[in-house]
Amino acid sequence: MSQPRMPVECGVPEIEPYLHPVMKKNYGDWKYHNRPRPGVLRHVANSGDEIWTVRAGTPRQMDVTMIRQLMDICDEFAEGYVRFTSRSNIEYMVSEESKVQPLIDKLTAEGYPIGGTGNSVSMIAHTQGWLHCDIPGTDASGAVKALMDELIYEFEHEEMPNRVKITTSCCQINCGGQGDIAINIQHTKPPKINHDLVANVCERPTVVARCPVAAIRPAMVNGKPSLEVDERKCICCGACFPPCPPMQINDPEHSNFAVWVGGKNSNARSKPTFHKLVASNVPNNPPRWPEVADVVKQILSAYKEDAKDYERIGEWAERIGWGSFFEKTGLPFTKYHIDDWRGARATLNASNHVRF
Ligand code: SF4
Ligand code: SF4
Fold first, then answer.
1. Is 70:82 a contact under the CB 8 Å cutoff?
2. Contact status, residue 145 vs residue 63, Cβ threshold 8 Å
């Protein structure tokens, strides 16, 4: 009888056993690389060895059938080695140029687009949503799939002024959501408290400590220990909801999308930057989120038309000025774009204590 496989709790595994043999042999000894076409990388080592990488888009959340199909393609058309990028693209490595086109043909025939390299719009990095997390206000993966269906041309071609990194985040305290274009959930009403449940479910001091603007106070309600929120202070961030689910902040009408522009994590060519709000209250409208797609396409089309070569979206907006950005994209500039909040110094919970 076969023995059950026991988990090995040792952190991130050693990379070496999973490297393609050509990569292992030439590790740290590469001469140059180029991109013969969108979605294909060619690395040449000082030894003269070459390795070809074919990058394909995936819908990110995959079932077992799809993963088996991708691995079967790897066994039949590649050389048994794959890796996933941080944007959920799958990459197949082959050591001979003659294997590249049959692999591309097979992936394309099965519906996996080839691209995501260079100055394309690569796959959108998104957070886990309902599959893994208990607090999302939307289905980030669904919004991503719907949007990439519309942007597939820009995934398959490298026609943008520079690379475009889009992110989404399904709550407002978010584990993602900083990119050239970021699509993040935005709550616009304070949490609604179910006072019957707070005493049973929540550790009240933890919840009070969690609020970044000190808007939560302990309170007795109907003879039971509960909490209350000072709604004049609350910035609707949703940070109280994870440790205290009875403080429900998700709302079908008042939890919408906001689109932010100009974030950059890398140090390449220019320093990292924070993004800025360009559209708020965009409807959270499943299953295709057409309003989100319209905003993103407006931004991309103006950027593609107007930016200089190698300008990232934020660099382009800074050069032309944010006034021109709104004119060129056609997005309305409203009072919600002005950050006039003056309470930070008095109320911001700026302690450096780590809180859980
Ligand atoms: S962004 Fe928020 S809701 Fe979405 S997976 Fe991360 S913590 Fe959960
Ligand atoms: S944690 Fe955020 S949502 Fe909750 S009360 Fe404080 S500011 Fe409002």
1. yes
2. no
Q: Which of 61, 132, 173 to mutate to test the pocket of ligand 1 (most atoms within 8 A of CB)?
A: 173
pLDDT bracket for residue 175 (50, 70, 90): confident
> Residue 231 corresponds to which tokens in the numbers above?
């709604």
Q: How far apart are CA 293 and CA 151, in angstroms?
A: 9
Q: In what order do the strands lie in the sheet with 30-37?
A: 30-37, 40-45, 50-56, 90-94, 82-84
Give the long-range contacts of residues 15-24, CB within 8 A, separation 24 or more.
18/81, 18/83, 19/81, 20/51, 20/79, 20/81, 20/93, 20/95, 21/95, 22/49, 22/50, 22/51, 22/93, 22/95, 23/51, 23/93
Nearest residue (by CA) to ligand 2, atom 7, is 234
Contacts of 279 (CB under 8 A, 6+ apart): 258, 259, 295, 331
Local structure of residue 223 (DSSP, 8 states): T
Decide whether any atom of ligand 1 lies within 6 Å of the 171 Cβ: yes
Euclidean distance between CA atoms 306 and 309, whole angstroms: 10
Give the bridge partners for 168, in sequence order. 126, 183
Report whether residue 62 contacts ligand 1, using a CB cutoff of 6 Å.
no
Name the pLDDT band for 189 (thresholds 50, 70, 90). very high
Q: How far is the CA of 141 from the centre of ligand 1 (A)?
A: 11
Q: Is the pLDDT of residue 299 over 90?
A: yes
Query: Measuring from atom 6 of ligand 1, which residue has the nearest CA?
Result: 175
Structure letter (DSSP) for residue 216: E
Spell out which residues line ligand 2, taking CB within 6 angstroms: 190-191, 210-211, 213, 215-216, 229, 234-240, 249
DSSP for 250-310, please give it: --TTTEEEEEEE--B---SSS--B--EEEEEEE---TTT-HHHHHHHHHHHHHHHHHPPTT
pLDDT, one tens digit per residue, over 90-107 is: 999 999 999 999 999 999
Given this model, what pLDDT does residue 103 score? 98
Ligand 1, atom 8: nearest CA belongs to which residue? 133
Residue nearest to atom 6 of ligand 2 (CA): 211
